[in-house]
């Protein structure tokens, strides 16, 4: 049983919130349609921006349009219209089979027209005429200016997808606009039986705005804390259920019945923004809660995969209506005005789509300028003789194995057939979708950074180890600290000198301490916390918690400690991400926001690389799969030392890559050895075990790298336009490491030696606490040589060691055994 197909039996259609040329060309979109999993497609400027900026899908078409002298707005129009026409044609059998009930492709009028009724109508008519498909829907936003445009477009006979609806009041206006348009058309003697419309009611964004306010009330532990906790994560679903109740009331009214008698269809509610933004909620949280007849759910690829895997279809929309009313009443009692919330969401939504549209135009213009200058962006490789055929063969094999599709479906057999590893692998692939999740939280992070600044904090100290600290260190060293933001220090060593240095660099009262621990039980961050807690408490007493935040997984000991100590904030990270893959999660982004990095821009660049690694992208066009194929094949050929060469401003990026590759691939007697920070040598200084990867932001190392390539060493060059391209590089290297692990048949997501070391440390510390002596806790072997307080312990020590007269002689004898 396919849960996506089962939803249709309950009256709900699934529309795909995704479009890109690669999906059309590869046949992936057709397969989703033919398998009955989707019966419609939606698009918006943000989707097109990621598709065009993050892939080479459109390069040939761009070349042709640029050669024809077209400017960016005309280029965008041509590309979008071609994609929507092709999508509508793929969906036409669904449209015909359902007698026009389904099978629609949606395209948006320019968001810049959201406050212009007349131009919106004119643009909707132009798009309708240009695309010329009966199963097209034109998207018009539900702004005050958009509502009358909806009426006119319906009266003109256009199919309309009304977007950006957040409030019940606006929803009623939209349904009235639809019915009024039908009435005008019928009064003019024109048919209304083939007109279709959906009302796109946005869901998860409501919780994204309200939940932080509720969490603040919970943290205050005042008289309303319990009431606030009771409605966490409830507002969005309650709001949508009341909208559905209103839908049933309106479309069962006498007014609607009169139109139905003339062949009119209902305007179906469409649930938009149903991907989960809060890692504390299940990944199909909103889809499961809003299933009912005469509805559409438009979902992105990750949610499609999740629901296909573990969705449980059953009608839920009519359940808990009384509870929904009560929940919204509770919100009002807590001072949360839903009208104000939904108005802000509408304003922010229009602004966000407008910004995406402007960014899309800028992306196309930048590509246009590069094409005119004859410059091709991206990545390139200079490979030894015979290697090219080997890499091409591997890339074809990845395509033949449907690697990208299986990766996004979280198929553990890509790495191992050992079923004991499968469950853990599935629970370690959340990094694939975290950029999209974090994009919806970007404003929250900016607000938190502003809160910290306004609270008087001048410095921040991150208390973490390994994956929890490396990305923040890279960002701090690369971007520096923006004016007025917090100067960040990283403490990831128990060396007393480093602890003292972090303590001495700032006034503890004005320092925000970030306790970062995925498991919440790692010894070092917990000890750092205990140490600095005492320092701050000595100054601020009971208010010490104001100086601490935690980043951890839900349900950990650290979360509990943070709540008990009244931390300023607790950021719960998605639990299905391993530490070394957590750069684009809260672990990397909270510190980034505090130093003034534009996290939305960083994530936008990451999303472009996500799109470049999506289903339907050929392996040779996918930056992550391409790099991973080269790394894997190089390792099989004995060139297993991936040597990073970085432009000056990127020099610390290797810190993060080093741990990612080493922990992911160094196991089972196999692996790839990362080499970072090594000065670039001359070609003759290297053996035949190197693969060089050049992260190029500036040209200061070009000559040295060219010499290596000319001498026959394999060199991969990754071009970055600015520091924010690191967002894409984080994701590229995560994908590449996963691909290389698959080629080597290594589980790239477990960490047996790391865990072994942690377990041994806990055991030894426990023995020390129990027995009180180091010798009792640590197996030292025999004392083969001893003089005063100095001893060398060894098993089976040679006679030379035992008979040595001095420490120097004893060490020489010991080391000579190597």
Describe, in plain words, how this protein is organized in 3D.
Helix content is 51%, strand content 13%. With 818 residues, it is α/β, with parallel strands linked by helices. The chain has an eight-stranded parallel β-barrel with strand order 1-2-3-4-5-6-7-8, surrounded by nine helices. Strands 9-18-17-15-16 form a five-stranded mixed β-sheet, with helices on both faces. The protein is globular, with a radius of gyration of 29 Å.
Q: What is the compact description of this entry?
A:
By secondary structure, the chain is an alpha/beta fold.
Q: What is the mean predicted local confidence, pLDDT?
A: 92
Number of helices: 36
Overall geometry comes to globular
Cα-atom Rg, whole angstroms? 29 Å
Question: Biggest sheet, open or closed, and with what strands and sense?
Answer: 8 strands, parallel, barrel
Beta-strand segment tally: 20
Through-space gap between termini: 61 Å
Order of strands, widest sheet: 1-2-3-4-5-6-7-8
Percentage of helical residues?
A: 40-55%
Observed structural traits:
818 residues, alpha/beta, 20 strands
How would you summarize the topology of this molecule?
Layout: H1 3-9, E1 12-17, H2 21-26, H3 28-34, E2 40-42, H4 45-53, H5 59-67, H6 72-97, E3 104-108, H7 117-131, E4 136-141, H8 146-155, E5 160-165, H9 168-187, E6 197-202, H10 204-220, H11 225-230, H12 235-250, H13 254-260, E7 268-272, H14 285-289, E8 295-299, H15 301-310, H16 321-333, H17 338-372, E9 379-382, H18 387-400, H19 403-408, H20 422-426, H21 434-439, H22 442-454, E10 459-463, H23 470-479, E11 487-491, H24 496-504, E12 511-516, H25 523-540, E13 548-552, H26 557-564, E14 569-572, H27 586-594, H28 599-612, H29 623-636, E15 641-646, H30 653-665, E16 673-675, E17 690-696, H31 702-710, E18 715-719, H32 726-743, H33 752-771, H34 774-777, E19 782-787, E20 790-794, H35 799-802, H36 807-815
Parallel strand pairs: 1-2, 1-8, 2-3, 3-4, 4-5, 5-6, 6-7, 7-8, 10-11, 10-12, 12-13, 13-14, 15-16, 15-17, 17-18
Antiparallel strand pairs: 9-18, 19-20
């Amino acid at each position: 049983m396919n849960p996506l197909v089962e939803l249709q039996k309950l009256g709900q259609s699934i529309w795909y919130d995704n479009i890109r040329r690669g999906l059309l060309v590869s046949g992936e979109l057709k397969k989703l349609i033919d398998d009955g999993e989707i019966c419609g497609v939606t698009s918006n400027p943000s989707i097109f921006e990621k598709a065009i900026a993050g892939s080479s899908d459109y390069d040939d078409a761009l070349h042709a349009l640029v050669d024809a002298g077209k400017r960016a707005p005309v280029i965008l129009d041509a590309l979008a219209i071609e994609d929507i026409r092709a999508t509508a044609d793929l969906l036409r059998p669904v449209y015909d089979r359902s007698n026009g009930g389904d099978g629609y492709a949606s395209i948006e009028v320019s968001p810049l027209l959201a406050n212009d009724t007349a131009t919106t109508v004119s643009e909707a008519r132009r798009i309708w005429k240009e695309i010329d498909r009966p199963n097209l829907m034109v998207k018009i936003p539900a702004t005050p200016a958009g509502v009358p445009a909806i009426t006119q477009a319906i009266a003109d006979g256009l199919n309309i997808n009304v977007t950006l609806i957040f409030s019940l009041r606006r929803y009623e206006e939209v349904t009235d606009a639809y019915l009024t348009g039908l009435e005008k058309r019928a009064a003019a003697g024109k048919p209304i039986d083939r007109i279709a419309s959906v009302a796109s009611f946005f869901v998860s964004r409501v919780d994204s705005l309200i939940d932080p306010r509720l969490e603040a009330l919970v943290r205050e532990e005042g008289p309303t804390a319990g009431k606030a906790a009771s409605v966490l994560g409830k507002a969005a679903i309650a709001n949508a259920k009341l909208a559905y109740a209103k839908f049933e009331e309106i479309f069962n009214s006498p007014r609607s019945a009169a139109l139905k008698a003339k062949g009119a269809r209902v305007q179906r509610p469409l649930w938009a923004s149903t991907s989960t933004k809060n890692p504390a909620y299940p990944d199909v949280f909103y889809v499961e809660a809003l299933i009912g007849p005469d509805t559409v759910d438009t979902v992105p690829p990750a949610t499609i995969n999740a629901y296909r895997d573990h969705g449980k279809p059953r009608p839920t929309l009519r359940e808990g209506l009384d509870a929904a009313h009560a929940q919204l009443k509770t919100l009002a009692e807590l001072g949360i005005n839903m009208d104000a919330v939904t108005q802000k969401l509408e304003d922010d939504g229009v602004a966000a789509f407008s910004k995406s549209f402007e960014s899309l135009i800028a992306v196309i213009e930048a590509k246009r300028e590069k094409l005119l200058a004859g410059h091709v962006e991206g990545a390139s490789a200079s490979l030894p003789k015979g290697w090219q055929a080997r890499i091409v063969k591997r890339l074809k094999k990845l395509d033949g194995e449907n690697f990208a599709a299986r990766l996004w479906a979280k198929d553990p057999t890509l790495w191992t057939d050992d079923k004991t590893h499968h469950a853990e692998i599935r629970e370690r692939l959340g990094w694939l979708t975290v950029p999209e999740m974090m994009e919806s939280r970007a404003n929250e992070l900016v607000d938190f950074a502003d809160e910290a600044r306004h609270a008087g904090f001048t410095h921040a100290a991150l208390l973490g180890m390994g994956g929890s600290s490396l990305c923040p260190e890279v960002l701090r060293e690369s971007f520096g600290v923006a004016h007025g933001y917090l100067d960040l220090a990283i403490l990831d060593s128990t060396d007393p000198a480093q602890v003292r240095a972090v303590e001495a660099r700032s006034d503890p009262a004005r320092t925000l301490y970030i306790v970062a621990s995925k498991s919440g039980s790692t010894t070092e961050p917990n000890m750092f916390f205990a140490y600095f807690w005492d320092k701050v408490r000595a100054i601020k007493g009971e208010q010490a918690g104001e100086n601490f935040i935690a980043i951890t997984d839900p349900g950990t000991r650290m979360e509990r400690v943070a709540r008990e100590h009244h931390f300023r904030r607790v950021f719960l990270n998605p639990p299905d991400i391993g530490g070394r893959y957590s750069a684009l999660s809260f672990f990397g982004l909270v510190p980034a926001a505090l130093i003034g990095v534009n996290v939305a821009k960083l994530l936008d660049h990451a999303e472009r690389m996500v799109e470049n690694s999506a289903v339907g992208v050929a392996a040779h066009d996918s930056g992550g799969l391409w790099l991973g194929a080269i790394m894997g094949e190089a390792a099989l050929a004995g060139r297993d030392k991936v040597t990073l060469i970085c432009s000056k401003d990127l020099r610390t990026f290797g810190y993060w890559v080093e741990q990612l590759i080493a922990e992911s691939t160094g196991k089972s007697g196999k692996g790839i050895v990362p080499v970072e920070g090594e000065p670039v040598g001359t070609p003759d200084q290297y053996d035949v075990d190197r693969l060089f990867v050049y992260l190029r932001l500036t040209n200061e190392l070009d000559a040295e790298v060219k010499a290596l390539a000319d001498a026959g060493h394999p060199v991969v060059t990754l071009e970055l336009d600015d520091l924010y391209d690191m967002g894409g590089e984080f994701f590229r290297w995560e994908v590449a490491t996963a691909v290389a692990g698959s080629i080597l048949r290594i589980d790239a997501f477990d960490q047996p030696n790391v865990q072994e070391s942690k377990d041994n440390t806990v055991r030894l510390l426990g023995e020390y606490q129990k027995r009180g002596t180091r010798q009792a806790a640590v197996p030292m072997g025999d004392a083969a040589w001893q003089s005063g307080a100095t001893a060398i312990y060894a098993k089976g020590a040679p006679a030379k060691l035992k008979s040595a007269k001095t420490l120097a002689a004893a060490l020489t004898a010991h080391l000579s055994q190597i």
